[in-house]
Structure formats: C-alpha cells, structure tokens
C-alpha cells in the first residue's frame, strides 16, 4: 500500500507532466478517444464521416475548396491525419519549383495531398498514389473524382507499398519517378526508399519529400539518408498538421544518382 505522503509527493510531478505534454494529450484525445467513441456511436468510420461533410459543404470540381473544407472539418470537428495547410505550402512550393512529370505518393489516406499535388502538376504529368487500406482508398477515390481528376491524371493503386513498388515498372508502366511524397507509416520509409533504389525507379535529381520527420519521426530513415552519401537533404521545420504547438518537420531529399 502506497502511503498518502508518497502519493502526495507525486502530484507536482504529474501536474508538470500534464502541463508540459498537454498538446500531445490533446492530440491523443482528439485523434484516438473521440474517434473511437464516434465510430462506435455512428457505426461509420471517421474518414467516411469526413467525406460526407466534404460532399455536402464543398464545390465539386474545385480542389482548393475541397482542401479548405477538409481543413475546416479537421480543425473544428474531428482530427484527420491529412497533410494540413502549413505543410501544404511547403509541398506546393516544391511542386512548382520541380514541375515533375511522374509523381508517386505513398499513403493516400483521404486524398488530401493527392488533390493538392494533382492541381499543381504540369500538363501531361501523372500522379500514382498508393494506399493499402481498402476503406480509406474508397474514400480517396471519391475525393479525387469529386475534385475532377480522371484516371489519366491520378491513378490510385490499392495495396501495400512493399508489394506495389516492385510492380511499378512492369504492371503500371512507370519507368522512373521524378517526385516522391512519402506519407505512409514512418517505419516503412527506409525500406521503401531502398526498394525504389533497388528497382532503379529514381530519376537523377529526383526529389523525395518525407513527412513527419520530427513527430512521430523516422530516425532510421534519416540516419541512412545522412550516412549513405546518395542524397542531398534538408529539413523544413514546421508543425504537426492541425496542431501548431507540436513541432514537426518535412525532409526534402535530392537523389544524386550515385549508387
Ligand atoms: C498520414 S496518412 C497519409 C496522409 C495523406 N498523404 C494526406 O496528406 O492526405 C497515412 C496513410 O498511409 C497508409 N499506409 C500506411 N502504410 C502503408 C503502406 N505500406 N502502403 C500503402 N499505404 C500505407 C495508411 O493506411 C494511411 O491511410
């Protein structure tokens, strides 16, 4: 049995922890607890609820308006792990600068970054986006079509990245990519980067953008990038989507072509 005096001594420690990490608790509350309760009460998955809101509040065929509607939902209703408006500016600038023709996105989710990228692509460019979760892919498909993009501009590939990447050349006719946006599970970043290298999919000078490099972080991926000598890299410091108080970063790599 813990004596009341010892228990009392812990109170300042617990209070300090709660104050210091309040934003992370808030994230856990919004992203996990609220989601579970609403999933249970409505019987509809969170991403489908978000889509129903977007469908009734947005202008079809206007990708920018769809993005704003998603942002409104994520700020005011339920947290979604979309790229969000701050990081969108970083990605937007890079797409403008690089004007890529063959883009690969790993982790489509609801299609937020997909339509952000697709609306900025030069004429004749194509975006391949990979999602392994069938329910999320179904929502993304509806969002992509709602934004007005057809199969020639955006191809949604259903399946885990580790199975899709080795098939990109033969099955999807994608000989090389010049821009990659990695935003799937962070533990897959390193494996998939090495898969892209092994299957000779990276065009010299290709840009790879990897989200959530600080929170939750991808330390093995960054260690490899820094040590292997095959990439030039930099980190764009920003904050977690829809949580300005939680620091995060987006990594920008350039493939030098050196094996
Ligand atoms: C953070 S969300 C992506 C957000 C999206 N890029 C956006 O900005 O709107 C991560 C998504 O990656 C998907 N995912 C995770 N690991 C994957 C893998 N190995 N292959 C394909 N999809 C994956 C998850 O199902 C989830 O939908």
Automatic annotation (TrEMBL):
GO terms for biological process: catecholamine catabolic process; developmental process; dopamine metabolic process; methylation; sensory perception of sound. The keyword Transit peptide does not apply. It is found in: Endoplasmic reticulum. Gene3D superfamilies: Vaccinia Virus protein VP39. InterPro entries: SAM-dependent_MTases_sf, SAM_O-MeTrfase. CDD domains: AdoMet_MTases (cd02440). Belongs to the class I-like SAM-binding methyltransferase superfamily. Cation-dependent O-methyltransferase family. This is catechol O-methyltransferase. The lineage of its organism: Eukaryota, Metazoa, Chordata, Craniata, Vertebrata.
């Amino acid at each position: 049995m813990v004596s009341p005096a010892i228990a009392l001594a812990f109170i300042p420690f617990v209070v300090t922890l709660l104050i210091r990490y309040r934003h992370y608790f808030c994230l856990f509350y919004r992203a996990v607890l609220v989601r579970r309760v609403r999933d249970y009460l409505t019987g509809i998955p969170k991403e489908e609820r978000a889509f129903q809101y977007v469908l009734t509040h947005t202008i079809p065929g206007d990708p920018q308006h769809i993005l704003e509607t998603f942002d409104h939902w994520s700020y005011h209703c339920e947290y979604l792990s979309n790229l969000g408006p701050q990081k969108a500016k970083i990605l937007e600038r890079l797409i403008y600068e690089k004007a890529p023709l063959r883009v690969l996105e790993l982790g489509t989710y609801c299609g937020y970054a997909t339509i952000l990228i697709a609306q900025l692509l030069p004429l004749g460019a194509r975006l391949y986006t990979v999602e392994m979760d069938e329910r999320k892919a179904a929502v993304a498909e509806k969002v992509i079509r709602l934004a007005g993009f057809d199969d020639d501009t955006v191809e949604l590939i259903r399946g885990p990245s580790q199975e899709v990447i080795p098939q990109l050349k033969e099955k999807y006719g994608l000989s090389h990519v010049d821009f990659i946006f990695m935003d799937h599970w962070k533990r897959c970043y390193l494996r998939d980067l090495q898969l892209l290298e092994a299957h000779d999919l990276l065009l010299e000078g290709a840009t790879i953008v990897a989200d959530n490099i600080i929170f939750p972080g991808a330390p093995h991926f960054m260690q490899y990038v820094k040590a292997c000598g095959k990439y030039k890299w930099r980190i764009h410091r920003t904050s977690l989507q829809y949580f300005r108080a939680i620091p995060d970063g987006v990594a920008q790599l350039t493939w030098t072509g050196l094996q």
